[in-house]
Design brief:
Elements (H helix, E strand, L loop, with lengths): L9 H14 L12 H8 L3 H14 L2 E3 L5 E3 L2 H4 L5 H5 E2 L2 E2 L1 H25 L2 H14 L4 H19 L2 H15 L15 H9 L3 H23 L1
Antiparallel strand pairs: 1-2, 3-4
Helix pairs in contact: 1-3, 2-3, 6-8, 6-10, 6-11, 7-8, 7-10, 8-9, 10-11
């Protein structure tokens, strides 16, 4: 943290600098952070910006602040939630390959089980929406296809009726939509969205899970190949 920060969006810059330092292991779990006054002087910002940055670190579970004690770093593997993924997977405008592998594996498993549940729990309106989105995806490309892809899987998870799955999906929404160019290899015009929608409409849980797993695996392979 040697360079002073420019005076634009100072609280955001402080927050992102501190997140980067904590997640990169520059501060070990249990280690004290510099005082807020020292951070302000080092980064060339005011105390209000530092306080806001530290507050957001607390909300992520990355630091512990006790009255009368120093700010101490917490182990993100033990205390971090899904929101930490946003900062682990995309850093400095690039994707971390190891984290992408973990996230895509979890995504594939979550989506496959969501497909199985959606086949038995979906409403007629939800089934119709997935069919419509699949039809639109057949002719879409680029950024439009990516937005439709996210909407398709969000609709699938909504149809699955599991609120935890839904919250996990929500936690990666900003990560995906704010980094569309990095995730561009995910979506292909040949992906079998229609088969997924059909299996869910027909109430065939095993077929839905299989189709979703195949689709997610193909997307995963394309993204990892592009990053290799």
């Amino acid at each position: 943290m040697a360079d002073a920060l420019t005076r634009t969006s100072l609280p955001d810059q402080v927050f992102h600098r501190l997140v980067s330092d904590v997640l990169a292991g520059r501060y070990a779990p249990g280690e004290r952070l510099p005082t807020q006054r020292a951070l302000a002087a080092e980064l060339g910002v005011n105390m209000a910006s530092v306080r806001e940055g530290v507050k957001r670190l607390q909300q992520l579970g990355l630091v512990e602040v006790r009255h009368g004690d120093a700010m101490r770093v917490r182990d993100w593997r033990l205390h971090g939630g899904p929101d930490v993924l946003v900062h682990l997977i995309a850093r400095a405008g690039a994707l971390d390959l190891a984290m992408v592998r973990s996230v895509m594996e979890a995504r594939r498993l979550l989506l496959a089980e969501s497909g199985r549940l959606a086949a038995t729990r979906r409403s007629d309106a939800q089934a119709a929406l997935l069919t419509t989105l699949a039809e639109q995806l057949a002719t879409a490309d680029g950024e439009a296809a990516q937005h439709l892809d996210f909407a398709f899987f969000a609709g699938l998870i909504e149809a699955a009726g599991n609120v935890v799955f839904l919250l996990v999906m929500n936690s990666i929404r900003a990560l995906y939509l704010d980094n569309l160019e990095l995730f561009r290899p995910l979506v292909s015009g040949g992906d079998p969205y229609a088969e997924v929608a059909r299996a869910i409409r027909d109430g065939d849980g095993d077929a839905a899970a299989g189709e979703v797993a195949g689709l997610a695996a193909a997307q995963e392979a394309r993204l990892l190949k592009a990053l290799a």
